[in-house]
Amino acid sequence: MATAPSNEAFVRTYNSLSGVDIKAVFHNKAVAPLQAISYAVQREKAPVYTMGYPDPRAFSRGKRGIAGTLIFAVFDTHALVGTNQGIFKNAEFWADKEEIRPSVDVRSSGFAQVETVDSPIGEASGESSTLFVGDDQRLTQPWYSDQIPPFDITLTGANELGTVMSMKVLQVEILNEGYGISIDDLMSEMQMTYVARGIIPWTRWQSASIAGPWSNGVTLG
């Protein structure tokens, strides 16, 4: 009877994950067609100069922007939107009835009450005002990716050694979408660009020492 080697040594070292170890969840649904995701964080910083000195005295910090790209494999339906199979097929937004496509599912019609908000006048008088959407507005499913409401992207990775880690891209808004196909392509891809409000970086949240058969003293015969 040979005893399997312990994986405790791997737990105490740095472990890497590849693309096959990582799954993506958009809002609350796993995204099978996703092939790649990237992001970049940029911030405005400008030097501050004063008279009599050629080098900057300090650097002022300005706005920050977060943007990235998504690449999807195209199968038999759109990756995000679609009446039957899209990930956000049940998402809804308010649209003018003149621009709604005949094939799009319209969830409501007529004069609709959206929400109740407190106005400055209402705060002073102790009353609240109600916001209404006119008769030309309909609660509709998106048919373009840029019509999808903001959503979070969660990436979760786990390898064979039991290392589990995750990260998040918060409040994603789709900007652009591109697609193309030619006779030389064995498969087709769809590219999208997005902006986001925040990033939660990769964080390791489970130890491999409590997972896997090796930690239980399993022997090999």
Q: What would you note in describing this structure?
A:
With 221 residues, the chain is mainly beta. It folds into two domains: 2-47 and 57-76 and 145-220, Roll (Pnp Oxidase, Chain A); 92-140, no CATH class. It is built from two helices and 14 strands; from the N terminus they run E-H-E-E-E-E-E-E-H-E-E-E-E-E-E-E. Strands 2, 3, 4, 5, 10, 11, 12 and 13 form an eight-stranded antiparallel sheet that branches. The chain has a two-stranded antiparallel sheet with strand order 1-14. It has a two-stranded antiparallel sheet with strand order 6-9. The longest helix is centred in the middle third of the chain and has 6 residues, at 120-125. It is extended, with a radius of gyration of 25 Å.
